[in-house]
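Budget justification aside, the reviewers requested a transparent look at the raw inputs and outputs of the sequence design task funded under Objective 1. We therefore reproduce one unedited record. The lines immediately below are the structure tokens for a 79-residue chain.
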């Protein structure tokens, strides 16, 4: 599971067997976890056990890094 970014204790990554799904990232910090779609648009699937401020930070980080995350996904899966 390639790590895309580790920032403020929050890890952004994807699983290596998910190339049959639209581009997305998973996020984790301690016991908190989430999944955010990057395509067709940025949309939260779930964010469990993150505080409201962490959720806001996560969305800002995803928005700022979405193109880089997509690039890394496509490079990894050879698309």
């Amino acid at each position: 599971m390639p790590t895309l970014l580790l920032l403020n204790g929050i890890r952004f990554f994807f699983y290596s067997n998910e190339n049959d799904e639209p581009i997305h990232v998973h996020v984790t910090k301690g016991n908190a976890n989430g999944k955010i779609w990057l395509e067709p648009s940025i949309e939260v699937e779930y964010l469990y056990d993150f505080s409201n401020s962490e959720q806001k930070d996560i969305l800002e980080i995803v928005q700022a890094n979405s193109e880089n995350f997509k690039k890394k996904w496509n490079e990894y899966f050879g698309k």
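The beta strands are 3-7, 10-13, 24-29, 32-37, 43-48. The radius of gyration is 12 Å. Computational costs for records of this kind are itemized in the attached budget.
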